[in-house]
Specification:
single chain, 358 residues, alpha/beta, five-stranded parallel β-sheet, four-stranded parallel β-sheet, binds D-malate
């Protein structure tokens, strides 16, 4: 499909059979989702649709003037209850690139500090004209509550330990750019770090198993708690033909012959006592350093969702090495978020003709 200036597109021709990895006959894919809170309800053809539109958004970002009128007159509000640099800034840049009006609510200076509830805040923002609400909250599930009371679209910018769907999509997009043919099937993708507290890891499980990757989650056993049971019971949710994933504390086995290595931050702010003896010990046993990364394939890429604790989960020299694609992830985040804002705004239009089913 071609991204036009009109925000009415809800379907596109993309290749995809609906099975993991997506090779197969072209099919028409419609975007049915009113909100995007996690990827557990997003099918592989829909993920391919997002990737396809992201390609076109990248084309817009490569122009001398990186702005199109697609969301002209539409109102995007960002409501972040937790700290953020890249997610918030890239959502706001994405919305502005599509000519939306952007309102940015800082909870530190809003009525939230006077005790206003999430529900009241969301209702107030809607009364003030918000149509797409991009939110981040420290409580897992908070966007579902917002979606219950909000008449527009909710886009999750990260909730507690639960989900960070736009991060997983930009991660997938970046991996596809670097892997031959953009195909993740059978590719070894290793996520190393604080899996337990990571919404990034949880959302990546949905998208990477849908893509058919050989996904490994690695970290100290205290930071993998529950994931072994999840891996054993994994059925891929809405994603037919998904792959499986495995968990291990053997970092050398995980890194050996990896195609993609993603380091995750040790989330000290969510850490209860006793999960790690010390950061120094974590760095010594699990940190992605030059010696460990040499176990991966020579062409393997190194990723990190940021913010990084350099010297803890990733050595500074690895973070700036030729393998690292960390700044590409950040740049791709703008294009992915443009694609999602565009799709959600289109679904909103379609609501008038009764096409939205969710
Ligand atoms: C997040 O918001 O989850 C970040 O992208 C990753 C992190 O905080 O470590």
């Amino acid at each position: 499909m071609t991204v036009d200036v009109e925000p009415t597109v809800t379907s596109a021709k993309v290749s995809g059979s609906g099975a993991a990895g997506g090779a197969g006959a072209a099919s028409d894919v419609a975007w049915h989702h009113r909100h995007l809170i996690d990827l557990d309800v997003v099918t592989w053809p829909e993920i391919e649709l997002i990737m396809d539109i992201t390609d076109q958004m990248k084309g817009i970002l490569a122009r001398p003037i990186r702005k199109v009128p697609a969301l002209n007159g539409r109102r995007v509000t960002t409501l972040f209850y937790e700290a953020s640099t890249r997610t918030r800034v890239s959502f706001e840049a994405a919305a502005r690139n599509l000519s939306a009006d952007v309102v940015s609510v800082s909870t530190a200076t809003s009525s939230v500090t006077k005790g206003e509830s999430l529900v009241d805040t969301v209702r107030t923002l809607e009364a003030l004209g918000a149509e797409i609400l991009v939110m981040r909250h420290s409580v897992s599930g908070a966007p579902y509550l917002a979606a219950e009371v909000f008449g527009g679209h909710v886009l999750n910018g990260g909730d507690g330990w639960h989900a960070h769907p736009t991060q997983a999509l930009l991660d997938l997009y970046t991996m596809r750019q670097h892997l031959p043919g953009g195909d993740l099937r059978g590719r070894k993708v290793v996520i190393v770090g604080d899996i337990l507290h990571s919404r990034v890891a949880r959302s990546n499980i949905w998208s990477l198993t849908a893509a058919g990757a050989d996904l490994w989650l690695c970290g100290p056993s205290t930071l993998l708690r529950g994931f072994d049971r999840w891996a054993a019971a994994w059925d891929g949710g809405a994603i037919p033909g998904h792959g499986r994933f495995q968990v291990t504390s053997d970092v050398e086995a995980a890194l050996r012959d990896a195609d993609v290595v993603m380091a995750l931050r040790i989330q000290r702010e969510r850490m209860q006592g006793g999960l790690l003896p010390s950061l120094r010990e974590y760095a010594a046993r699990f940190g992605i350093n030059a010696e460990r990364i040499s176990l991966a394939k020579p062409e393997a890429i190194v990723m990190h969702p940021g913010p990084m604790n350099e010297g803890v989960e990733i050595a500074p020299d690895v973070a700036v090495s030729g393998r690292a694609v960390i700044t590409e992830q950040v740049a791709n985040g703008v294009a992915v978020r443009m694609a999602l804002l565009y799709l959600l705004a289109g679904a909103h239009e379609a609501a008038h003709v009764g096409e939205v089913v969710r």
